[in-house]
Amino acid sequence: MNAFERFTRRLSQWFNWIALAGLTVMLGLVTVDIVGAKVFRLPVPGAMDFTSLLGLVVIAFAVAQTQIMGRHITVNFLTLRLPKRIRIIMRSISTLLCILFFAVIIWRAFMHARDMQVLGDASLTVKIPLSPFGYGLAIAFVPMLLILLIHFYYIVKGVDE
After folding, report:
1. Where do runs of H (alpha helix) occur along 81-141?
2. What 3-state DSSP class applies to 122?
3. Could you tell me the mean pLDDT of each successive run of 10 residues in the chain, 161 residues long?
4. Which of 60, 61, 32 is nearest to 46 (CA)?
5. Helix, strand, or coil here: 129?
6. What is the per-residue pLDDT for 160?
């Protein structure tokens, strides 16, 4: 499991760099759009389209690294009072549900991206093709699914990460 875990962590780090690049481009685009509109009366055409799609990139590609760092919100003040065996069972069930959720999201995102590609869906103002972003969303959630599988392995094995 060690090599698989290292691969997953490295993949998550690379995806996090993609999210960071998307955020940097988004920041630059918004800055240029605001300055262009206010100072030169020349806004960036399609800035809202680009910003929305870059937001998808930032969120989707950062989710796995966020999970690795333990930055997602957890509410466990009730479960902490339960016996350890019940907590393990509840963690196993919730992790399995998350695995199922992300597997379905990945599958449906690929299917939806294919539909967008076939239909030629594009953004409203500057007609950016949407299917690459749909495929990107599906691919971006793969490391999250792998992390959850690793997490489930550790729960079953009885080892805390």
Report:
1. 84-119, 131-140
2. strand
3. 94 98 98 96 95 97 96 84 92 96 98 98 95 98 98 89 45
4. 32
5. strand
6. 63
Q: How far apart are CA 161 and CA 154, in angstroms?
A: 7
Helix, strand, coil percentages (3-state) for the chain, rounded to 5, are 75, 0, 20
What single string gives the DSSP state of each residue in 28-86?
Answer: HHHHHHHHHHHTSS-PPTTHHHHHHHHHHHHHHHHHHHHHHTT-S----TTGGGS-HHH
What are the helix and strand counts (H, E) for the chain?
Answer: 5, 0
Residue 34, CA atoms < 13 Å, CB-side half-sphere: 7
Q: Which residue has the tokens 């998307």?
A: 22
Full-model pTM: 0.91
Rounded CA gap, 145 and 15, in Å? 14
Q: What is residue 160's three-state secondary structure?
A: coil
**What count of other Cβ atoms lies within 10 Å of the Cβ of residue 66?**
15
Predicted local distance difference test score (pLDDT) of residue 75:
81
